[in-house]
Design a protein that fits this description.
Oligomer: single chain
Number of helices: 15
Strand content: 15-25%
Helix content: 25-40%
Structural class: alpha/beta
CATH superfamily of the largest domain: Phosphoenolpyruvate-binding domains
Radius of gyration: 24 Å
Length: about 450
Amino acid sequence: MKKAKIVATLGPSSNDKIEDMIKAGVDVFRLNFSHADHKTHKSSIKKIRDTAKKLDSKTAILQDISGPKIRIGEINGILELKRGDKIRLVKKNPKSAYDLTISYPEIIDQVEPGEYVFFADGSIRTKVVEKTPDYLVLEVKNEGVLSSRKGVNFPHSNLKISAITPKDEKDLIFGAKNGVDIVAISFVNSKNDILKAKSILKKAGANPWVIAKIETKKAVENLDEILEVSDGVMVARGDLGIEVGIEKVPVIQKKIIRKANKLKKPVITATQMLLSMVNSPFPTRAEVSDVANAVMDGTDAVMLSDETTVGKYPIKAVETLVKIIKEIQNIYPYHKRYETDDDDAIALSVSDLAKTIEPKAIISFTSSGTTVKSIAKYRPKSPIIAVTHSRDTSRKLKVVWGVEEIFEMPKIKDPEKLIHKFIDTAKKINKLQEGDKIIITMGSIIGREGTTNMIRVYDI
């Protein structure tokens, strides 16, 4: 089975293909809260849960909140721009077609002459040449066209704007009430953005994993503190490329993956993984190499966006990712080494032992998923099977590298009885058989987080 995971964004092309997508290899469905309303998302959550139950799958749901995506207002038709043209960003009362409003007008006060402003994913680049209390004058640096609601980026400006908007707060509470497993926070700048999201979720009575999307210059600068408080990260290469320059994205991607791996934080690599498959049944060679390199670098998961929301070949795009991941597994650098603290001593020992005896599987009994993430950090070649009594934990683990099976078992306090119960269940569905050798990790106190203290080699 594949060890790196697949996140697929649900949309018009895939809403009625959930079962086929799970069968093709999707581990996590992403719901993009920049689009659709709560009624639509609630329907999608129900479809995913019902289909996963039918297929006996632990398929997870990732809620991606929109964050303060800065956009221009309404434009009458299309605005054609040429190099040297002057346009204005105005706080209010546009007076001509060349006056553009903005979704966060207070940002105008934070931008200075000489800084750049990009529109429409960087396809139009402008420079601030004049500033007044009410507007910015921008000089256009290249030809292009603008239409309503296109995105705006300020790559050189030090903007002070919260990553959690009032809309996001409502979306977070909605996700908490509807049991999403993972939440991705957009346009994170510091650890405070993650802590604020976690506080909102806690007050709403939920504890999903909170993933920080790294897509701003500030996030790159504050990566260490963001990783410290988040449950994982996403390399959001779209806006990141605009913010820092596309030539810097590959190096930053490798840096993020390396640091996240070391801290046993799941990392998702996203944006334009197989973009040509929106309209073509086949990817480009460059796209295949891009996915392969992300997997080789150690990403836990790769993500599809347009490919599965508006693309013509959503199932084929998933199948293509599966093929690439499995091929890379033939040359993957398993059994990685890090400076290890006491918390990871068990996990490192498991990896070293697995390298020596090559067990059929590594079986980790876990309450919170922490031990599983620790073992996955060292990238053992043997499959990892997670065994938990927690439905929430079982679904979260779908985004963790190397977790090939997840069993939900009842709480049994006696370790021996729990082991035998699991083995009997696994044998009945042909996951294990007589003669298999396995490595088991578990705690002396069953069901309590942070008590893993045992490694056993077990011959079935």
